[in-house]
Write a structure and sequence with these properties.
Blueprint (H helix, E strand, L loop, with lengths): L7 E3 L2 H13 L4 E7 L4 H12 L5 H9 L5 E6 L7 E7 L14 E2 L6 E2 L2 E6 L8 E6 L1 H16 L3 H11 L6 H22 L21 E3 H7 L2
Antiparallel strand pairs: 1-9, 2-4, 2-5, 3-4, 6-7, 7-8
Helix pairs in contact: 4-5, 4-6
């Protein structure tokens, strides 16, 4: 199935996470997700465009919504050359083509979008009347990291603790994730004092960066196909 659109594929996870948050915030709360081999991706994207018009401009999509039709968006991500492309198809509430009713749509308000140990959540903002969308570690991933911290401190595996610190402080600096990292830092200090006393503790970073407004970082699908041959 041919398409005149050369599809964009994100190569930076934080930028893709930010775009997912943007879409959900603007009403694209229904979603399906999956993965697909690169060789099949052009046909797959063209098929979705044929069925759902995922390649419309923002203005065109806005006009569809005003007439009561659902607007659809497709996001793709590639991080490793030997891994399939991950994709998310999101839509607003509205009239759908018949094929849309065959999809197993999930509601991001109740069934959170998750990826690589993170989840997209809506949280209150101090001093603001409207909650914001942000990313944080899933409860399972956060618990795993905290357990690993406690184990490393108590068993005196300092190299393992240093690696954990490196991983944790590279967390994308979304507001909710930053709060979790701060608490993990407090856990490290508290566990060290209780179990290691005056032993020199591995250095903790003094700050963690914020995720500011990121540009779309990625490549066209045609370029990606050439580089991975």
């Amino acid at each position: 199935m041919a398409s005149s659109i050369d599809w964009f594929v994100f190569t930076k996870k934080a930028a893709l996470m930010q775009r997912l948050g943007d879409l959900v915030r603007t009403g694209h709360v229904q979603y399906v997700e999956g993965s697909i081999d690169l060789a099949k991706a052009p046909f797959f994207a063209a098929k979705l465009d044929h069925l759902y018009r995922v390649g419309l401009t923002r203005l065109e999509a806005s006009r569809r919504r005003k007439t009561g039709d659902a607007a659809f968006r497709l996001l793709m991500l590639t991080e490793e050359s030997d891994k399939p492309i991950r994709w998310w198809l999101l839509r607003t509430v509205g009239n759908m083509p018949p094929e849309g009713h065959r999809e197993k749509w999930r509601d991001a308000l109740r069934d959170r979008i998750k990826m690589t140990g993170y989840e997209l959540v809506r949280q209150p903002r101090p001093g603001k009347s409207v909650a914001s969308w942000t990313w944080r570690y899933t409860k399972e991933r956060e618990a795993d990291l905290r357990d690993a911290i406690v184990r490393a401190v108590r068993t005196k595996r300092d190299d393992e603790l240093r690696q954990l610190i490196h991983v944790i402080w590279r967390t994308p600096g979304f507001a909710a994730a930053r709060a979790q990292v701060k608490k993990m830092g407090q856990l490290i200090v508290g566990e060290w004092k209780r179990n290691r006393g005056d032993d020199p503790m591995p250095e903790l970073p003094t700050r963690m960066g914020y995720v500011r407004r990121l540009p779309d970082v990625g490549v066209k699908l045609s370029t990606l196909s050439k580089t991975k041959k």
